[in-house]
Amino acid sequence: MTNKIMLQFDPQQCINPKGKHVRDGLSTVLRTENNLWLSCDESTNIERLSLSDNGSFGGHQSFDLTNYLDLPDAGNSEIDIEGMGMGDNYLWIVGSHSLKRKKPRRHDTIEDQMKRLSKVKNDPNRYLLARIPILIDKASGDYVLHKECEDPEQPGHMLRAAQLHGDSDSSILTEVLKHDEHIAPFMRIPGKDNGFDVEGLTISGKRIFIGLRGPVLRGWAMILEIETEEDEKGMLHLKQLTKNRPYKKHFLNLRGKGIRELRACGDDIYILAGPTMDLDGVIAIYRWPGALLNEEEAMVHNNELEHLAEVPHGRNEQSGKDKAEGLAVFDEEHVLVVFDSPTDARKEGEDVVIADLIKVLK
Question: How far apart are CA 330 and CA 203, in angstroms?
Fold first, then answer.
């Protein structure tokens, strides 16, 4: 069963530096009580909406991440944010960590179109994995970001924005993955070509789960699990989680689909899954039961996953539209789904877009 939720953006804050409206490129969504946090994948901002009396979300406030983090390329207008999660009074943010291939342009010559298709670009800001202190403002009832603030649960302890660092063109995570027997061959392949591509993030205590849209290996998708440690300078480092690696791998047989979003809920993890390549295809919501009770690496076969619902997507004349990208736990029975490249039917006026509220528990 699907209902609709209206998301209202502020016309003064909703256009990115490239002229794209936030509602046309939503890539992730997270609910924190009365707030929804969203991002457009072509900016360095994240957006906060607040619950209205009529059940819609408005009161749009945009937060520029360059005010909280030291981005590798501060002049770049894109992080390609693909996931957000919350834990221990921190909002966590992850970029796609992927390479991108240029698109051919129909008006160019055939030679120029082929040349563009050979070009692969690396954007340093895409390799972001960071945390920002987030606390509720008692006066307004809204959550607010801080670069630094006192931890309300541990007086005298400071919460500080921080991020994982690598070299100028990658992150420490991608540096270690270049030696992984499953992932290394895909690190130099663009995300939309079934290369390495992050598109999901969820937090459970100290555990950080990162969902991969690609690569998908013989139908099996991957979730990476990491934890971070903070040194005396406030820098984040990967914690050693196995004998040989600072991460764990979990393989899930999603029958060829990659991961678009992850959400922890109780002991389970909800998974939004869809095509890894740039094509129309089935997008579905699954539950991995008891995922957070497991502390070892996992091979999760398809019959161990619960198929909860399929999500509408563009096809035929609407091909390439309504691509489900973000999933939020809305309440005990429902999840909220937001879409990249929404159809005109999903838009209202100049600054409103419709999200889907899907019942996942009977």
Answer: 16
